[in-house]
Amino acid sequence: MEIDKRIKIRHLRTFVEVARSASVGRAGERMHVSQPAVSKTLAELESILGARLMERNRSGVSLTPVGQMFHAYASSSLAALRQGIEGVSQTLVAGGLRLSIGALPSVAARIVPDAAVEMGRIAPEVGLEIVTGPSAYLTSELTGGTLDLIIGRLGHPEAMSGLSFSQLYSERISLVVRPGHPLVECSDINAIADYEIIFPNRDAAIRILAEQFFIAQAIPRGGHRIETVAETFGRAYVRKSDAVWVISSGVVALDVAEGMLVELPIRMPETLGPVGLTMRGDGDPSPALRLFMEAVRRTVTALHLSN
């Protein structure tokens, strides 16, 4: 059940203060508002809830049974909110605060830079360390406590023990070549076997999906094959050769948009996989990490990648 959007923090603060003071007048003095304003706010809250929360008499104000029940939730909610605000403030003013973020190739060039800019805007006190590498390496660093978060494709099931994953969007694999490559105008998918292939190695998150696609399409394994997840190598090698690069679409999205690389017109919906946030499941993230994760989500929304 969703919370009624008409209920505001001022309703809860006023209700809790009146209950604590047992007086509308004293509550108004402590909140620096008039007694009629306090009474109006209480009346609004009771109207929204459809229940009488307080009884007013000559000795002051007392809670009804429903009011006593609601008071327990209202007071704990305000206390939790105060703790959250204080936690953010204390964390951000602490000197030398730093987050270590693991970024898989599919997000390192497109998501992480914009998220880092956003983080610098909302929390400039927090330093960021960005670590890239294959999925298996980053997962081991996260499990060992060296990393606070991984952004990228969902890891292999056997490596996700003790970790949690929150999906941001789905991403497919692309086959990309240099501009002017013979395959750009070729509709025969099996012709790929006539060229060098840059293929994700065994540590890559997309390795299994790529293997399954090649098997399902009956593409023979021919020619020279280079296995790597080094996007800098792949980008440079493809531009100066006729190699076909098997890579997550996010890694080369900017290159394709700028005309530096060309994506082959081959539909690969079966290679769609979840991209998201992976973190340890041993507790709540720190306020600073929460801020960074929110910056990532806003970046994904701004780039129209959300599912």
What would you say about this model in short?
This protein has 307 residues and is of the alpha/beta class.
Question: Could you explain the architecture of this structure?
Answer:
The protein has 307 residues and is α/β, with parallel strands linked by helices. It folds into three domains: 9-93, Arc Repressor Mutant, subunit A (Orthogonal Bundle), CATH 1.10.10; 98-171 and 273-302, 3-Layer(aba) Sandwich (D-Maltodextrin-Binding Protein, domain 2); 173-271, D-Maltodextrin-Binding Protein, domain 2, CATH 3.40.190. It is 43% helix and 20% strand. It has eleven helices and twelve strands. The strands form three sheets. A five-stranded mixed β-sheet has the order 4-3-5-12-6, sandwiched between helices. Strands 9-8-10-7-11 form a five-stranded mixed β-sheet. Strands 1-2 form a two-stranded antiparallel ribbon. A hairpin with a 2-residue loop joins strand 1 (54-57) and strand 2 (60-63). Helix 1 (9-21) crosses helix 2. The mean pLDDT is 87.
Assigned CATH architecture of the largest domain: 3-Layer(aba) Sandwich
The geometry reads as: elongated
Helix percentage? 40-55%
Kindly identify the CATH topology of the largest domain: D-Maltodextrin-Binding Protein, domain 2
Radius of gyration: 28 Å
Integer count of domains: 3
Q: How widely separated are the two ends?
A: 23 Å
Domain HTH lysR-type: 7-64
GO biological process, one term: positive regulation of DNA-templated transcription
Family: Belongs to the LysR transcriptional regulatory family.
InterPro entries: HTH-type_LysR_regulators, LysR_HTH_N, LysR_subst-bd, TF_PcaQ, WH-like_DNA-bd_sf, WH_DNA-bd_sf
